[in-house]
Here is the input.
Amino acid sequence: MLNLFTKFFKLFEIKDSQPVSKAVKNVENQIKESHMDREYHPNGQLKSEKFFDKNGVLKTEHYYKQNDDIYTNYGQPLKDGEWKEYLDNGKLVFVRVYKNNSMKKHLGYFLNGKLSMKGIFKDDVRKKYTHYYKNGQIKSEEFFEKNSSSKRCWDEAGNEVICDE
Here is the structure.
């Protein structure tokens, strides 16, 4: 019995006569260093959320479409619009574009703000990925079908080359 009691207090502490997970307390401390802004649809479902670091720099933003259909996504709001991720310096690094909970595009950016990659999806399944050099020239294109893929590559001058993979 003493062993079980000891294990309990390694994982939990008592606060206001209630057990509180030490892991939750650690997360609460981290949240104090950062913050999140949320907006809601008229039906109370989440509309958007933005996460900021402790310096107030926007790290991610997510958008949701109202969903009144209990049979779609269990009645939870649907991913919709651009989901963005930022570096510590505030530069945009990734964008994922959703429509009705289905990813349509995945974009990545170099530190100079130029496109580094672009993925195209249909029904959450990748169809095409294009990677770019920093000068904007296409580096490679990869097309995906059911059980196969094909790839084309170019050098920085735009000459087609044999892919390294």
Q: What stands out?
A: The domain at 2-11+19-161 is CATH 3.90.930.1 (Outer Surface Protein A; domain 3).
